[in-house]
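User: Sorry, folds how?
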Amino acid sequence: MKSLTRISLCGAMAMLALSTGCSDGQSLSEKQPTQWKTCSALFGRKNMESLRSILDSDDLKFSNRALSVDQLKKGLTQEAIDPYDKLRGFKEYETCGLSGNGYFAATARWAADSLKSVQTNTERWQRANAEVYVADPSGVGGDVDLVFRCAIRGASGQAQVLLEARVSAPDTPRVSEAFHQQLAVKLARTLRDELACTNEPNIPDNLDVYG
């Protein structure tokens, strides 16, 4: 009887480890707290829990280095304020990444393309509304890649006013196109709010990426 109890207990613990995404029973928030906190802040806790469930595996882990929302905010703000360095260009920040039985990655940066080039390159960029442009997903590997104007207070002569948010296409059929787009919209809105874009760009619910 004791052996049966022990087997049941071990089985329950194994299931718990699987549901938390870590083979030793620790949740992602326990093993990599900074990454979990940042991803949850940028994408919303419910979205991250749904994504974790979709990518469920015993070796699921964050693949991006620890980066707080405050560090991301300060980095992007400082780049907008400082004189533009043509040799270095703009830094790309990996805001959230997951690997295991599935893959997920998202980045944020000041866009390399100017507003004029985005407006004229209609083969690549589609207009979602007056302030947001979305790249044709067939040309970026299925990623949801969008840019929007974000003016930073105190950044006179700001070299680039387009902020770019990209969310990879998770390599699992369980992630719907609607959920993929939802993650990109949430990331863009959070970046807008955290950076306090003075032009207050409207990020639409529907990016019309998939037709």
